[in-house]
Design brief:
The protein is of the alpha/beta class. 33% of the residues lie in helices and 13% in strands. It holds the Pfam family Aminotran_5.
Length: 415
């Protein structure tokens, strides 16, 4: 494993020169200079004609007469997403956001979903995602997996009761964006496979900034990822396990008859797509590896990043957890005594007796950028209103131990 050099990584983000300490990677991840330059270049060239002999990638069709540079940017984006998750470029569906892609998928699932079928959703997921399936598309029945309100985790055992022969789709998130809890994906998917022929739809958006993503290892049929949450452009993607799955979906447009990813795609800015390849290139170079394919370099780089940030995560929980007045959602109190240590470097916390707005303002006055945790249905059920709100902290690849120490000192002044 290549050693991780946080100081060198910080140099890849020109925005860090402003003197602020950014602890808000869950809401507004910093944009690497390589990504910003890639988007600017793509917008300049998107409407130019591509030369007939221009290379467009090993897995792409040869350019045709009159083909624009923008199409090359879109093809490169699909290849980059495929490298990011270990899949094939022709199995990647691009879209402007995950809610839009989930709505498109819900419409296209008509051949699979009927009145006698069921879908299983998770209340741990962001409401904006499960909204596409929450009302039972095509007359299907909706069943809900419930998180543990003490830990914010998603128990796997309940899927043995929720999934049966009528189940056609199981949708869940690999991790919670605000709590940092990680779902037992392998156990859940194994249960789904044992009890049904359902497709599994797994959102890896919160997991992907911190750990290598391998579609085969996860075992899901469809992966979902919001590239903006990785510090990329406002583009999202669905990645299918097998292109043969497109045959079982309805096309969004009646004129689309080919059984390809185009069945589900909605227009995406070619200029924004030009930033996807640079994003994945950036992630592949975080740990300085320069040998092998992009996929190989990416895995090595993310393994080094995971080890580095896991060390920071431990300090983040330990330092804040030692402050008696601090309550970390899903980690503090008797109800969280059995909480798993498998967490991302993210958390939401409250200071007892101090409104979250005051905590957030004190952090901001000390040049620490965090966010107020939104009062989602899950966080309300976990007691965020009784606590007076909460503040969310999420680390990025450029954060250091000094950042955590500074955070702890400021919170201690309130606690």
């Amino acid at each position: 494993m290549v050693a991780y050099d946080a100081a060198s990584v910080r140099g890849l983000y020109t925005g860090l020169a402003d003197g602020w300490t950014y602890l808000n990677a869950h809401a507004a991840p910093q944009i690497a200079e390589k990504v910003a330059s890639g988007v600017a270049r793509a917008f300049r060239t998107a409407n130019a004609v591509l030369p007939a002999d221009a290379p467009v990638g090993a897995h792409s069709a040869a350019p045709v007469a009159g083909m624009l540079e923008g199409e090359k940017h879109l093809q490169a984006a699909r290849m980059a997403v495929a490298d990011l998750v270990g899949a094939r470029a022709d199995a990647v569906v691009l879209g402007p956001s995950l809610p839009v892609l989930y709505q498109s998928l819900a419409r296209a699932l008509g051949p699979l979903l009927r009145r006698q079928s069921s879908v299983v959703l998770s209340k741990l997921d962001p409401p904006a995602l499960y909204a596409a399936f929450a009302h039972g598309p095509h007359g299907s029945t909706v069943r809900w997996a419930q998180p543990d309100l003490g830990t914010g985790e998603l128990p796997a055992f309940q899927y043995a009761e929720l999934v049966d022969g009528s189940t056609r789709l199981v949708s869940l998130s690999a991790a919670h964006e605000l709590l940092g809890t990680v779902a037992p994906v392998h156990d859940i998917i194994e249960t789904v496979r044992e009890r049904s022929r359902a497709w599994t739809l797994l959102d890896v958006t919160a997991l992907a900034p911190y750990r290598p993503i391998d579609m085969d290892d996860l075992g899901a049929d469809i992966l979902a990822i919001d590239l903006a949450q990785l510090g990329g452009p406002q583009i999202a993607a669905l990645v299918f396990r097998d292109t043969a799955m497109f045959r079982r979906l309805d096309a969004l447009s009646p004129g689309q008859t080919a059984h390809t990813a185009a069945k589900l795609e909605t227009p995406v800015s070619a200029g924004l797509a030009g930033g996807v390849g640079p994003l994945v290139d950036h992630m592949a170079t975080l740990a300085g590896g320069d040998r092998g394919s992009r996929r190989v370099r990416l895995r090595g780089s993310m393994e080094s990043l995971e080890a580095y940030l896991d060390d920071l995560r431990a300090d983040l929980y330990i330092y804040l957890g030692t402050l008696s007045q601090v309550h970390i959602l899903g980690a503090t109190g008797e109800a969280a005594a059995e909480a798993s240590d498998d967490r991302l470097p993210r958390l939401s916390f409250a200071v007892r007796g101090v409104p979250a707005e005051t905590v957030h303002r004190r952090l901001f006055d000390n040049r620490l950028v965090t966010t107020l945790a939104p009062a989602t249905p899950l966080l309300r059920d976990m007691g965020i209103d009784e606590l007076g709100g909460a503040v969310t902290v999420a680390l990025g690849p450029f954060n250091t131990h000094n950042d955590i120490e500074q955070l702890t000192r400021v919170v201690a002044s309130l606690a």
